[in-house]
# Entry
Amino acid sequence: MRKPFVAGNWKMNTDSHTSVNLAEKIASVSSETADQSVSVAVFPPFVYLQMVFKALSVSNVAVGAQDFYFEQNGAFTGEISALMLKDIGCTYVLCGHSERRHVIGETDELINKKVTAAISGGLLPILCVGELLEERKADKTNEVITRQTKKGLAGLNAEKVSAVTMAYEPVWAIGTGLTATPQQAQEAHDFIRKLLAEMYDAQLAEEIRILYGGSVKPDNAAELMCQQDVDGVLVGGASLKADDFSVIIRAAV
Ligand code: PGA
# Structure
């Protein structure tokens, strides 16, 4: 049985006051789901990670980072390593988010180095994959997902891949207000699960969680998460509003 997972990616938003405030509100909602029937994690900007930890300390909410660099330490000005994130208590890290692929220019090869380094550094990576609108229109969704998944996980054996959470995030649905229909999400998730079964084995594919992301809101979260292969959601905009995020957490229970 895959435990539902609700993750909030705050992106480059909040400040020292609003990040703590948001974390405190999320902590109080998650204490209501004290049966631990849902995993909840937030991904604040680096500079607020420790404040958010403090605000969440009495809750079950995990904290992750939005990015990191694959080297452990050294002369990499401006970068932060998996070891540093682990050191301050991070559990998860996002890898291959569409904004890093398409705005910052990260390649599949770089993303693979990050997924590999995250696992060796004791973090749980969330590998995001998803097609652009023109790729969907050209019927290339499965091709893109296959490339990003195979390259993102290259060189990792089944044991290592069991640390990974997948996230299907169609780029055309991120921050646009357009959401994949529950059927489109289910189709892509089913495709990813079968691909993982082919690459590794059926048991691993059955156990791995696959989140959906792209304009998840309180009014569409439940219908997305009731799809058989949608094991949770990666939420951007709506994770910045404590009330909206709370509704989404409750929809996962
Ligand atoms: P959105 O972002 O919910 O604002 O579309 C999702 C994401 O980028 O993970």
Summary: Residues 182-199 form the longest helix (18 residues). The chain has a mean pLDDT of 96. Residues 9, 169, 174-175, 213-216, 234-238 surround 2-phosphoglycolic acid (CB under 6 Å). The chain is about 45% helix and 15% strand.
